[in-house]
Amino acid sequence: MHNQQDSQLTTRSFRNRLWQGRFLSHSSILQWLLDGGDPMILGTGNGAVLKVEGDGLCMRLDSVGESRVALSRPLFFKRHCRAGSIAWCKRAVGWHGAVWMWQAAWKMRRLNIPAPEPNGYLDPTFQNPGACSFFWSEWVEPALTLRQMAEAPKTRDQVINSQKLPIQAGDILARLHNHGLYHRDTSWKNFLLNPETEQLLLVDIDGVNRGGIRPETAAVRDIARFLTDAVISEADASWMQLLLTHYATCRQIPLSKIKSPLEEKLNQFLGRKGWYNEQER
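RE: above sequence
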């Protein structure tokens, strides 16, 4: 049941882009942000802040406000603050990061692409293009990134020896590309895997977009980024071939169509990471 304050917050005009999340039993997070509250003190517990880049912020959110009002369940929370004239113009017309993430997240769910459920966003940038915007979605537990699992001795084999995982990854990439969408950063840090169910989820969807005038180049780039981490993690050739075969089947294209440009892009990514230098030592 929403109180009067909740109703006032959740019935603002669409241009203010203020939404009430499904998993929020109250609007404390919204009111806190509207009042200029610092997101850095929203979280509780050790390791609540996941990443800080400039003014941007990713964190696990367990409570809100100085009084630490507990949420009904934890959320993933992201603050978008971009500098520069181009970013300012995008904010001025409503193309800010939080708005983009909200739209991309729901588009992916409509296309049955596994991703965390979006819960809400706050975008005051229409009135103030210099302001930050905020996005939050469900917190997936006990999921870890593929990179974390591949680097941990206890879970490494579960990744590189799995027959299910490369098929899931190929399916996710094929679904994206079949609908003309491209992630642009499909490294293993942007795939979550639940070690109990082996369900793979795609995250960090800020960059999901159309492929421009060269969509196949964007598709090859997505595949190569994913396979770069597979090579570095020492997944065998059959693991990667399974992914590529399933991807090509889902897209109804011959594998030979992407093989040559994929090898070129993969070598480029591996060279940037210094992988070849490591192999020569």
